[in-house]
Amino acid sequence: MQVEYLIIGQGICGTWLSYFFQKEKQSFLVIDDKQENSSSRVAAGIINPVTGRRIVKTWMIDELLPFINNTYTELGNELGITAISPKTIIDFFPTPQMRFAFLERQADEPFLQIPKSENDFRNNFNYDLGYGKITPSFIVHLEKILPAWREQLLTSGKLSEELFDLSQLKITSDKIRYKDYAAENIIFCDGAGSLSNPLFSRLPFAFNKGEMLLIEAEGISPENIYKKGIVLAPYLSKNLFWVGSNYTWDYKDDFPTKEFHEKTELQLKQWLKVPYKILDHRASVRPANVERRPFVGMHPVYKNAGILNGMGSKGCSLAPFFAKQLADHLVHDKNILPEADILRFRKILSQ
Ligand SMILES: Cc1cc2nc3c(=O)[nH]c(=O)nc-3n(C[C@H](O)[C@H](O)[C@H](O)COP(=O)(O)OP(=O)(O)OC[C@H]3O[C@@H](n4cnc5c(N)ncnc54)[C@H](O)[C@@H]3O)c2cc1C
Hints:
eight-stranded mixed sheet; binds flavin-adenine dinucleotide; nine-stranded mixed sheet; 8 helices; globular; FAD/NAD(P)-binding domain; D-Amino Acid Oxidase, Chain A, domain 2; alpha+beta
């Protein structure tokens, strides 16, 4: 089989890159082994326009939000699914300091609002220090997008379900060969898999592990995402909620831990007034990096090998934007944003 692009991985990065190649009528094959605990399959899908204790705007959010809204809506229409939903984050203040920080930032930040009455959620949640609203926020329905896009790729013969074995990859200056496939370029969208890829493992990744519980709870409105130390977000269908997460940098494996389960269950017991049932517990490794900027572009030495990775905890908002940049770079020779282009690591990658 001969294609222009081999894409390794169909998480949110591989999904968007293949989507934009398809729009550009480029030939490609995606290879993905469908790891059930890949980052995109465990994520909540939240897009929060603000971040951190100081509640500052997320990097590039003013530019990203309209783009994200349009592209996910377009993808959803093509797949016949709801790919993105607007939500409000109900940010219950865990400490007086957080309430103070929110009030202070509210003056200059249109994403932040303090409601007239802070009593609307007393029936379902315990809280003492009130709440603010963060709006607009979004949920990207990864649990619908990934299988629907996969199905479309499988039907059109553009996805091979297999483990990609690096030892069988042969890169020459003008061709990529892998088993029976030949391609002009290979792009790695393999998330945590890049750790074992000698072409890109020198990039300053800072992988970290995160866990979630899936719970069933009645009476909580799915119109909002709720936050109080942990996050409770609507998931898949009525009464199901995603609960998480944590950030563990020092981990032995990517399995769910008893510590997270116990701690989160205790937090839920104190927070929720409604009965709930824990249905599942999952963990994954976030492909994060030291600089908190994605890794996008082509290798400075192996010029036909590229990467779209390093999305950290912001894959849902960054992946479509930078997948389009990478596709435009490859097809139309456009520039990649220097802060994201891996050529900023030219020296490290050329050693
Ligand atoms: C608990 C948790 C919560 C999160 N919540 C959010 C959130 O609310 N919002 C947000 O924006 N982000 C969130 N994230 C981060 C988000 O999940 C990532 O930024 C994003 O999913 C990364 O996508 P990716 O496509 O780069 O990698 P991945 O999702 O890991 O995809 C990589 C793909 O490559 C495949 N693959 C890897 N190696 C091979 C191989 N050798 N052969 C074949 N296939 C291979 C895997 O099967 C997988 O399908 C969360 C992450 C975690 C862990």
